[in-house]
Amino acid sequence: MTTKLTAEEKKLLESYETEEWESVLTDESLLNYKAAAKATFKKDKRVNIRISGKDLELIQERALIEGIPYQTLMSSILHKYVYGNLIEKLHNK
After folding, report:
1. Residues whose CB falls within 8 Å of the CB of residue 35, separated by 6 or more in sequence, listed in order
2. Which member of 1, 23, 72, 87 has the greatest number of CB atoms within 10 A?
3. Backbone angles phi, psi at 5, to 5 degrees
4. What is the Cα–Cα distance from 57 to 62, expressed in whole angstroms?
5. pTM (2 decimals)?
6. What are the residue boundaries of the structural domains of the chain, listed by start?
7. pLDDT tens digits for 3-17?
8. Measuring CA to CA, which residue among 66, 85, 93, 46 is closest to residue 58?
9. What is the rounded distance in angstroms from the CA atom of residue 91 to the CA atom of residue 93?
10. Using one digit for the tens of pLDDT, what is the confidence trace for 33-86?
11. What burial class does residue 39 get, using C-beta atoms within 10 Å of its C-beta: 0-12 exposed, 13-18 middle, 19+ buried?
């Protein structure tokens, strides 16, 4: 797969590859990012739901493809949905 880059994108890629970029990450900001990530993914509640066997089977299959536990995949899907980040893929029939 060949990706066509704009002139600006090529310039950015070249500057990255020639190591012109320098991290501005500080120890303090790293701790803040870690704390935010930990709070975001804190799992402190349990839910039980009933879904069809076929749906569960497909979720488990998709999780296997993604290389993550199926409960993690389900939690991620719900998280994306409640924050409005789950995008519906329309199929042409």
Report:
1. none
2. 72
3. -105, 150
4. 9
5. 0.52
6. 50-86
7. 888 999 999 999 999
8. 66
9. 6
10. 888 888 776 777 889 999 999 999 999 999 999 999 999 899 889 988 998 888
11. exposed
